[in-house]
Amino acid sequence: MGRHYIPNSAHKEEMLKEIGFSAIEDLFSDVPKGMVKEFDLPEGKSEYEVFTEMNEILGKNKTVLEMPSFLGAGTYFHYVPAHVKYIIERSEFLTAYTPYQPEISQGMLQALFEYQSMMAELYGLPIVNSSMYDWGTAIAEAALMTVRLHRGKRKRFLILKALSPEKKAVIRTYTRGADLEIVEVPWDEKGQLDLEKLKEEVKDSAGVYVEMSNFFGLLEENVREIGEIAHEAGAYFVVGADPTMLGVFEAPGELGADIAVGEASYLGSPMNFGGPRAGVFAVKNDRSLIRQMPGRIIGMSKDADGKRAFVMTLQTREQHIRRAKATSNICSNEALVAVAAAIHLATLGPKGLAELGEIILKNTAYLKKRLSEVGEVPFEGIYFKDVPVRFEIPYDIIHERLLERGIHGGYYLGKHFPELGETALFAATETTRKEWVDRLVEALGEIISEAEL
After folding, report:
1. Where would I find the H helices in 273-334?
2. What is the pLDDT of residue 320?
């Protein structure tokens, strides 16, 4: 007896007749010729054969202990305490998806409420949603939100030129349908956001975005002044901040931010080849801002018996309300990553978070000092995690020869920032060892000497 693993496949002819087609191929008639191709797939393998092959492939990977890596540029190797993974793998967290009947998921709602509460304290703004996709989409949502707050009368949003190329791509793609004009404000000779250029561009802008340390890792010295310029022009001020720096630096809310964004996955999650992530999104306690926030907000209330209960206070996503009224169409759930961040943050506490930031600052300073011996750091200032270094020889040669020596170098900036020349971005975190940096600098010295011969 034949078995049909695809539902209703036995009724294929009947269904085609019902919709007015004679063959499956007719369904693809509007696809350009040559675009529909048959997949030349190999014969299937047994589970054990797949297991063996996958382990052979995985065996080629090298850990950071075997190959020290200085690649950062937005994705960093942080230490994640073992208990974080254990707790989020509990079934009540691991299987919890978008809560369509949220009040029955009291445990998950409480965990997200704790996440919001901790991020609110960390970012210095009282209202935080229960996460976005990532930092890039959080910026894009902030841009759209500032336009809505101006009722569409202002459709320009300013970002710093010294911003991650990936974030720029996300922002431009995400806001294209809303016809937003995204304007890049250049850096000055110090690598800081050019305040004079900002004053020229800010007129009629819906919002201004700045990061507390820019893509080059350079700490922005004029965040408060940038906010004042934005507010004087009637624009909303959006500040991005890495949560691991907020134990040692002022919070965005204290610097005048109306909206703050960041990346929660730097706490509690491994690199995972760049994802999944969870974007932080926080606003001032202003009703107009709160009503225009994307995503969900979890609140604390009381049930019919007067007991504490957690509820979904605000849910302006298109899944929950009429689509025309939605503030965002973000549908997937980054709640597990947000819960991991909350667990890690609770583990660290204020003192631990401050110590984490101090260690990263010290390691970054040591990396900068040593790299200055073999290359040029283009801007002076305080660096956090990333440090740009300019070389006299093509960086692709340097990178290839570093790999031969068992070291993964930095992120090449020349493709996206050609004005910086043969410059690469090297990163340090709390996991970076002194001997790794010394080994890197020794290798760079040898490579440069060999190239000059």
Report:
1. 287-291
2. 62
Check whether residue 335 and residue 366 sit in a common domain: no
Write the CB contacts of 235 (distance below 8 Å, at least 6 apart in sequence): 146, 154, 158, 202, 205, 206, 207, 208
Residue-wise pLDDT for 157-171, tens only, equals 999 999 999 999 999
Residue 376, number of CB atoms within 10 A of its CB:
13
Whether cis (ω within 30° of 0) applies to the bond prior to 378 is no
The neighbouring-strand residues paired with 376 are: 390
385 and 433 housed in the same domain: yes
C-alpha to C-alpha distance for 361 and 358, rounded to whole angstroms:
5
Question: For the domain that residue 428 is a member of, what is the CATH number?
Answer: 3.90.1150.10
Total Cβ atoms within 10 A of residue 242: 22
How is 172-194 classified by DSSP, letter by letter? HHHHGGGT-EEEEEPB-TTSSB-
Place of tokens 């000059």: 452
Domain stop point among 292, 319, 345: 345
DSSP sequence for 147-167: HHHTTTS--EEEEESSS-HHH
Both ends of the chain: CA-CA distance in Å?
76
Is residue 247 within 8 A of residue 350, CB to CB? The reply is yes
Residue 266 pLDDT more than 50?
A: yes
286 falls within a domain: yes
Instruction: Please report, for residues 84, 87, 413, the alpha-carbon distance to residue 378 in angstroms, rounded to integers and kept in the order given.
Output: 39, 44, 12
- Among the listed residues 299, 298, 329, 300, the one whose alpha carbon sits nearest the alpha carbon of residue 316: 329
Phi-psi sector, 62: left (phi>0), alpha (psi -120 to 50), beta: beta
Dig out the tokens for 379 from the structure.
Answer: 């801007």
Number of domains in the chain: 2
The closest alpha carbon to 342, from 415, 269, 431, belongs to: 269
| Range(s) of the domain holding residue 375 | 349-452
Token reading at 29: 């008639």
Do 424 and 357 sit in the same domain of this protein?
yes
Query: Could you tell me the pTM of the whole model?
Result: 0.88
Residue 315 is assigned to a structural domain of this protein:
yes
Residues in contact with 50: Cβ distance below 8 Å, sequence separation at least 6, in sequence order: none
Backbone dihedral region of 168: left (phi > 0), alpha (psi from -120 to 50 degrees) or beta? alpha
pLDDT value at position 103?
77
Q: Which residues face 263 on adjacent strands?
A: 279
Domain assignment present for 68: no
Query: Domain boundary residue among 295, 322, 345?
Result: 345
Q: Are residues 266 and 340 in the same domain?
A: yes
Give whole-number Cα distances, 257 to 177, 185, 204, 247, 250, in Å.
26, 18, 19, 17, 11
CA atoms within 13 A on the CB side of 319: 14
Q: Distance between CA atoms of 361 and 385, rounded to whole angstroms? A: 7
